[in-house]
Amino acid sequence: MSSQLRAKAFLFDLDGTLVNTIAAAERQYTIWATKLGIDPKPVVEYCHGVRAIEVMQKFTPKGAKITIDDANEWETGFSNDSEGVFVLPGIPELLKKLPKHRWAIVTSGVRAMAEARLRQMDLPVPDVLITADTVTHGKPHPEGYLAAASKLGFRPDECIIFEDAPAGIEAGVSAGIRTIGITTSYKPEPSTKRMFSSMIIMTFWWKSRPTRRSLKSRC
User: Fold this and answer.
1) Closest Cα to residue 117, out of 94, 86, 90?
2) Tell me: the pLDDT tens digits for 60-71?
3) One GO MF term, please (predicted)?
4) Distance between CA atoms of residues 67 and 157, nearest Å
5) Which end of the chain has less Cβ packing within 10 Å, N or C?
């Protein structure tokens, strides 16, 4: 039996949720880690859904300094890396159906990178775009999603979040917003799935076949 999830507004993560950028992110962090002489594996495992400056601060060797310019340089390399990057199936059709005042993007990337990636993939830039350089606290802090809901003019309980990374899912849960975990791009560890067992794990199949749950926006 199918069921419906109703919401007045939809809040989307960008990388891994609307656009599969996993390969590019992992490639760019591997390059960065290799230059520093550190093992890229833990960096790659941690980076999904987290702001670049926070990834760098966590893994930069003791004594070395990381500045916002370093993070911006990484963001530029990431946005220019389009190899293996693609829009997830059904996303263009979905976004075209949503009224502009009913959806937003909340990303851990900076605004310049986010806008460049959206245009690169021929996707619309939403009126409400919350980025790494417009919040004080990045994911898993709920600030970004709460800001998006507020700017759209809706309460948290009137929204639904679509996320693919543990940090983003935690941000949504902490914000008190219904959060749907998308497994299309990033494949979470079993422990992560258990942590968010109350969330809905699904993939986007808007174009190729019907979903088991239909999502409707209340007018």
Assistant:
1) 86
2) 998 888 898 999
3) sugar-phosphatase activity
4) 37
5) N
Backbone angles phi, psi at 95, to 5 degrees: -65, -35
Over residues 141-199, the pLDDT tens digits come to: 999 999 999 999 999 999 999 998 889 999 999 999 999 888 766 555 555 554 453 45
**Token pair 């009137």 is at which residue?**
158
| Dihedrals phi, psi of 188, to nearest 5 degrees | -70, 155
Q: What is 9-20+85-196's CATH superfamily?
A: HAD superfamily/HAD-like (3.40.50.1000)
CA-derived radius of gyration, the chain: 17
Angle at 30 between CA 24 and CA 35, to 5 degrees: 130
> 124: which 2 tokens?
């619309």
Tokens 């992992």, located at residue: 26
**CA separation for the pair 71, 77 (Å, rounded):** 10
Alpha helices in the chain (DSSP H): 22-36, 40-47, 52-59, 68-80, 91-97, 111-120, 143-152, 166-174, 190-195
What are 133-140's contacts with CB under 8 Å, separation 24+? 138/50, 138/51, 138/54, 138/108, 139/49, 139/50, 139/51, 139/106, 139/108, 139/165, 139/167, 139/168, 139/170, 139/171, 140/49, 140/166, 140/167, 140/168, 140/170, 140/171, 140/174
Euclidean distance between CA atoms 116 and 113, whole angstroms: 5
- Summarize pLDDT for 42-83 with one digit per residue, the tens: 999 999 899 999 999 999 998 888 898 999 999 999 999 999
